[in-house]
Design goal:
alpha+beta, 5 strands, 30% strand, globular, Lipoprotein
C-alpha cells in the first residue's frame, strides 16, 4: 500500500514534467531503481512499443553527488531503466531502438524484438 501511494504521489508530481500527450500514462507508472541512488518511474505501452521513463528529481541529486558529476547521461540511464523494467516487470528480453525526449527530463524509449526470458535468464 505504501509503495502504491508513493508511486501515485510521484506520478501526480511528475505530470508537470511530462508532455501533456503522455500525462494520462503517469497514473500507472512503476518504480525502477538503478545504481548510485538513480531511480525512475516507467510505464510500458505495448501497442506503441515504447516505455515512458521519468526520473525522480531527488534521485538525480543523489546520483550527481554519488558520481561526482561524472555519471552516465540521463538519456542513457533512461534506456537502462526501460530495459530493466521490461526484463524484471514483464519478463521480456527486448532491444531498445530509440530514445526521444517526452518533456522535462522524461524520455520515450522505443523497443523491438521482444521474447520471453528463459528460466536461466530470469532475474
Amino acid at each position: 500500500m505504501r509503495v502504491s501511494l508513493l508511486v501515485l504521489g510521484a506520478a501526480v508530481m511528475l505530470q508537470g514534467c511530462v508532455s501533456p500527450t503522455y500525462g494520462p500514462r503517469t497514473a500507472s507508472m512503476q518504480p525502477v531503481s538503478l545504481d548510485c541512488g538513480s531511480a525512475f518511474l516507467v510505464n510500458v505501452d505495448g501497442t506503441a512499443k515504447d516505455v515512458l521513463v521519468v526520473p525522480y528529481p531527488a534521485s538525480e541529486a543523489r546520483y550527481a553527488a554519488c558520481t561526482q558529476g561524472a555519471g552516465a547521461p540521463l538519456a542513457d540511464r533512461a534506456v537502462i531503466a526501460a530495459v530493466r523494467h521490461l526484463r524484471t516487470g514483464l519478463k521480456q528480453a527486448c532491444a531498445p531502438t530509440t530514445v526521444t525526449p517526452a518533456g522535462t527530463g522524461a524520455f520515450l524509449v522505443g523497443y523491438t524484438g521482444c521474447r520471453p526470458l528463459t528460466p536461466g535468464e530470469l532475474p
